[in-house]
Amino acid sequence: MGRAGGADEVDCYVGARISLRRSALGLSQSALAQRIGVSFQQVQKYETGQNRISASRLHRVAAVLGTSVESFFPPDEDPSSTRAGVQVLRSLTATADGRAVAAGFPMIADRDLRQAVARIVTALARA
């Protein structure tokens, strides 16, 4: 459930996933806005969870970003997990380096190699 006076955690998660995917594809907020028929300010509000995105608009966003609607949603219903996921996504998209890692990671076809990269990043983060 949403918090009184604040954005719903799932809306924030969906917005952060939109931002991550958009950034990974090298699209600006303005470019995405133009393709889905809204202002760039509206895209900003979707990405921060300030405004809830409708199902039909989310469907359009998924089509423009070449992904499924489901890819924008958290994997489980645990609110603390969703909250933590939003924080991770926001920190990942906050820098060009983070966006580059996010864009390249899914392109690593070998599962073992992806897991090795994840272990390396985890180890470096602890250092």
Kindly describe this structure.
This protein is mainly α and 127 residues long. The chain is 65% helix and 0% strand. The protein has seven helices and no strands. The chain has helices at residues 9-24, 29-36, 40-48, 55-64, 79-93, 96-104, 111-126. Helix 2 packs across helix 3 (40-48). The chain is globular and about 40 Å long.
How would you concisely characterize the structure shown here?
The protein has 127 residues and is an all-alpha fold. The protein is 65% helix and 0% strand.
The proportion of residues forming helix, as a percent range, comes to 55-70%
Number of helices: 7
Instruction: List the secondary-structure elements in sequence, H or E.
Output: HHHHHHH
Main pleated-sheet profile: none
Question: Over the alpha carbons, how many angstroms does the gyration radius reach?
Answer: 15 Å
The rough form would be described as: globular
Sheet/helix structural class: mainly alpha
User: Beta-sheet strand percentage?
Assistant: under 5%
- Our measurement of the CA-to-CA distance between the termini, rounded to an integer number of angstroms, reads 37 Å
What is the average of the pLDDT values? Answer: 85
- Low-confidence spans: 1-5
How many β strands by DSSP? 0
